[in-house]
Amino acid sequence: MTAGTAGATTAEHAPERGGTSRTDDFEELRPLLFSIAYRLLGSVSEAEDAVQETWLRFAATPTRPRSVRAFLSTTVTRIAIDVLRSARVRREAYVGPWFPEPLLADPYEDPERSAELADSVSMAALLLLERLSPAERAVFVLREVFDFGFPEVAAAVGRSEAACRQLAVRARRHMADGRPRFEAPREEREELAARFFGALREGDVTGLRDLLATDASVVGDGGGKTPQLARAVIGGGKVARLLAAFFPRLAHADVTYERTEVNGQEGAVFRDRDGKVLQVMALDVHDGRIHAIRIVLNPDKLGHVGPVADAWAIHHELRRTPRDAD
User: What are the Low complexity biased-composition ranges (predicted)?
Assistant: First the structure.
C-alpha cells in the first residue's frame, strides 16, 4: 500500500460499479499521472507529491467520476500548475544553473509513442519547457506528449478549446525554435556514449574531442550546496581537456560510474566507494556529436536515486591527491 492510499477508508477500497475499487483505478493510472506531473514540474519529489494529493482528492469525492482518467489527469494537472507557479519564483533565486531532477526510468509506457515520450522527458526538452508559461506548458504536455483531445486539455487547464488551440500553437513554436534539427537515432546515441565513457575513463583528450561538437558545453547544477564548476565550460577542445584532466582522478577516490538512461537519453550515475550517489550525468546527442554534458550534483535532487555521497569529502580527498598520480 502506498503512502497516498494508507489513509483511505474501507469504503474507498471497496469495489464500485464496474467491479474495480478506487485504489485499483488509481494505481492503474498512477504511471500516467506521475509522467504528466514530472514533465510539468521537472521534479521527481514534487511530481510524487502531486500524485499523492490527486489520490487524496479522488478518495474524497463522494461519487465515482464518469471518467476516472479525465478526473485524475485534470486534477494532477491543476495541482502541478499551482506548484509550478510557486516553483518558478523559487527558481529565480536558485544558485547557479538549474536542471530538472534526473529521472532514470519513466513509469509510463506507450509503444506507439515511445519516441515522443523519451524525447519529451530529456533534459533539453524540459529546459525548453521552462520557457513556457504554466498554461502553455500544460497544454503542450497533455496535447503533444500524451495525445489528449482538446476537450480534455481544456477541462484540465480551465480554458476554452479555442484558447487551448492558440496556446498549443505558441508552445509548439517555442519548442521547435530551440530543438536541434537532426535527432540522433538510439543506436547512434548508444555507440557515441560507449566511446565517450571509454575515453573519459582513459583521460583521452583526442578521443573526447572527436566526439564533441565544436560548441559543446559542460554544465553542473550544484545549487550552491556542493563543489561545482563556477560557470559553464564551452568549446569542444576546452571541454575535452577539462574532462580528461578531472574524471580519471575520481578513480583515485574510488569513484565509479554505471551507464544508464537518464531522462530518456544516454548518461551515467557516479557513486563513491560506499555506493552512494555523487552525481548524475546526462548527454545531449544530436547531429552525430555530443553537444551538452549536464551534471546534476545538488544533493537535494539525488535522494530519489539512492543515498547521497558527501561531495565535499571527495573534493577534499581529490585536492590531497597529487595530479601526477594519474
Answer: 1-11
